[in-house]
Design goal:
Length: 498
C-alpha cells in the first residue's frame, strides 16, 4: 500500500497523522505500507522505501490536511499515469482512498478523483477497510467498491445512495498511541520527538473546524504519554506536545514536571490564553521553550464574543504578563481579519490591544519580541459560520495594510496570509464536485492559472462572498458530523445576536 502526502517530505514528516497511519498499517503482518510525497517536479511520485511508482500499488491512501494541497493531489495523480477520474479506473489500477480533516469536513471537491473517502479518524475505519481489501484483492473492482461503500465512515461516490455517512472517531485514544515513528532531521520539527496529547477542543469557536470535526475532546492518559516519551528520549532531547488544545489536558502540569524530571526539553503546539498557569509556563521555559503563541483572534471584546472566543482584555494581558515574566523570547499573537460584522473599529481594537501587549512586555524589560500573525477569516464547512460570506480581497488587503502600517513602526512584526489565496481556500472549502473539473484543468498552480481554469469551466465561485440561506442544501450534506440537529444554526443565531 502507498501512503501519499500531497506536499513535500520536509512538511509531511512533521505530520503525526502520516506517522500514525504508517505505523498502524505496517503493524499488520500481511501489509507493507510505503510513503510517497509530492515532489513538485511533475515527475511521477515514487515510494521512498522501494522506489515504486504509485500505479504499481494495490491501494493508495492520500492524507489531505489542507485545501491548498488539493492542487498537489491532482498533480500527483496526473503524473502517475493513473486515470484522474475514479470512474475511468479498472482492475489494473490501485484503489485510491482519501482521508484527513478537509475530506471529513467536505469531501465533494475531490470526490470524483477518489474511489472512496474516509469521513473521520483513521483508527476506527481502517480495520474494516483492510478486511474488505483482503477479500476483494484480485476480484472485480466494482464489487470491492460496493463492499467498501457499506462500511461505516466510508463514502464511495460511485455507490452512494444519497444516504449520509457518519463521521467516525476513536473512543479511547490510549489504544492508538500516536508518536513520531520515523525520525528524520530533514523535517520542520526534526529536533523534536512529537507526541499527540489530545484530540478536540473544549472551546467552541464558531469559525473553527476542530470543535466539530474532532469532537468529542479526548485526552491520552499521563501514563501512556510518559511511556512514549521515555522511548522518544532515547532518540531526541526534546519532546513536542501536539494537539489543538494541549493546555486543556487535566494533568498538564504533572506531565510537564515528569518530562522535566526525565531530562526532556519541551515544545508545545498550542496554549490557550485561559487557563494559563504560571507553573505550566515555568516548566515550559525551563524546558527551553523560546516562543509562545496565543490566539485572541479578534481585537474587540464584541467580536471575540461573537466568534465564541470569550476572552476579556484582562485575560489576554494577564497571559502576556505571565509569558514575559518567564523571560520567553518570542510571543506570537494570532488574529483574523474579515470576521463577520467586522468594522474598521474592530481593526483599531487589534492595534490598541497589540500596543497594550507590547507595553506589558516592555515593562518586564526581558527582551520578549512581539509578532502578530494575521489570517483572513475563511468560512469552513461543518462550522456554525459555514453559511456566512467571506470578505472581499480589497477589504482584507486594506485591513492587513492598516495593521501593518500601525504596528510595524512600533517594533511589532506583522506577518499575514495572502487574501487572494485565502479566497481560493474559501472556494475549495465550501465547494461541490464541479470544482474537480477546475482542479483538473489547472495547468500551472498560480492565481492566474486558477482564474483561467475557473473561467474555462464557466463556474460561479462568487458563492464564497455570499451569505447562504440556512435552508439551502449544502454540498457536503452527505457528511453526518454526529452533531445534534440544528446545533450549527442555533450557534450562528447566537453569534449574530451578539
Ligand atoms: S480556535 Fe482554537 S480554541 Fe477555538 S475551538 Fe479551535 S482549536 Fe479550540
Amino acid at each position: 500500500m502507498a501512503i501519499v502526502y500531497p506536499n513535500s517530505y520536509y512538511i509531511g514528516m512533521s505530520n503525526l497523522g502520516i506517522q500514525a497511519i504508517y505505523r498502524l498499517l505496517n503493524g499488520y503482518p500481511d501489509v507493507v505500507a510505503e510513503r510517497l510525497f509530492w515532489g513538485g517536479t511533475g515527475q511521477p511520485a515514487i515510494s521512498l522505501e522501494s522506489q515504486r511508482p504509485l500505479r504499481d500499488f494495490f491501494l493508495a491512501a492520500f492524507s489531505v490536511p489542507f485545501e491548498l494541497d488539493f492542487f498537489n493531489v491532482v498533480d500527483i495523480l496526473k503524473a502517475s499515469g493513473i486515470p484522474l477520474n475514479a470512474v475511468e479506473r479498472d482492475e489494473g489500477h490501485p484503489v485510491i482512498i482519501a482521508g484527513g480533516a478537509t475530506i471529513t469536513a467536505n469531501p465533494m471537491p475531490l470526490a470524483p478523483f477518489f474511489d472512496c473517502l474516509c469521513i473521520g479518524e483513521v483508527e476506527p475505519i481502517l480495520p474494516a477497510v483492510l478486511s474488505v481489501m483482503r477479500e476483494g484483492k484480485g476480484g472485480r473492482r466494482d464489487e470491492l467498491l460496493a463492499a467498501l461503500a457499506r462500511l461505516p465512515g466510508v463514502y464511495v461516490p460511485r455507490f452512494s445512495s444519497g444516504q449520509t455517512v457518519a463521521r467516525q472517531w476513536a473512543a479511547n485514544l490510549n489504544e492508538f498511541p500516536v508518536f513520531a515513528t520515523v525520525l528524520t532531521r530533514d523535517t520542520e520539527l526534526g529536533d523534536l520527538y512529537l507526541l499527540e496529547v489530545e484530540r478536540g477542543c473544549n472551546w467552541s469557536c464558531r469559525f473553527c473546524l476542530v470543535s466539530t470535526t474532532f469532537c468529542p475532546v479526548r485526552y491520552r492518559s499521563l501514563d501512556s504519554l510518559l511511556v512514549q516519551a521515555e522511548t522518544g528520549l532515547k532518540y531526541r532531547k526534546r519532546v513536542g506536545l501536539v494537539g489543538p488544545e494541549v493546555s486543556g489536558h487535566p494533568q498538564l502540569e504533572e506531565l510537564l514536571t515528569r518530562l522535566r524530571q526525565m531530562g526532556a526539553g519541551l515544545s508545545i503546539s498550542s496554549l490557550r490564553v485561559k487557563p494559563l498557569s504560571r507553573p505550566v509556563l515555568e516548566k515550559l521555559a525551563e524546558g527551553g521553550v523560546k516562543t509562545i503563541a496565543l490566539a485572541p483572534e479578534a481585537g474587540s471584546p464584541r467580536l471575540r464574543k461573537l466568534i465564541g472566543k470569550t476572552l476579556t482584555e484582562e485575560d489576554i494581558l494577564s497571559a502576556v504578563d505571565k509569558v514575559a515574566e518567564q523571560g520567553i523570547r518570542q510571543l506570537k499573537l494570532y488574529f483574523m481579519v474579515g470576521l463577520p460584522t467586522e468594522t474598521d473599529e474592530d481593526i483599531e481594537a487589534i492595534v490598541r490591544l497589540a500596543f497594550k501587549c507590547k507595553g506589558v512586555l516592555d515593562r518586564w524589560r526581558g527582551g520578549t519580541r512581539l509578532s502578530i500573525n494575521i489570517a483572513p477569516f475563511v468560512p469552513k464547512a461543518g462550522t456554525p459560520f459555514q453559511w456566512l460570506p467571506m470578505a472581499g480581497t480589497a477589504i482584507l488587503k486594506g485591513r492587513i495594510s492598516r495593521l501593518s502600517k500601525a504596528l510595524s513602526p512600533r517594533g511589532i512584526k506583522v506577518k499575514s496570509e495572502s487574501p487572494a489565496w485565502s479566497q481560493v481556500q474559501g472556494v475549495l472549502a465550501r465547494g461541490d464536485s464541479a470544482l474537480a473539473g477546475v482542479l483538473a484543468d489547472v495547468s500551472e498552480v498560480s492565481l492566474s492559472g486558477w482564474r483561467r481554469a475557473v473561467a474555462g469551466r464557466n463556474l460561479d465561485v462568487d458563492y464564497v462572498h455570499r451569505r447562504w440561506p440556512a435552508q439551502q442544501k449544502l454540498p457536503w450534506s452527505v457528511v453526518d458530523m454526529g452533531l445534534k440537529k440544528g446545533r450549527l444554526e442555533a450557534e450562528l443565531g447566537k453569534a449574530l445576536a451578539e
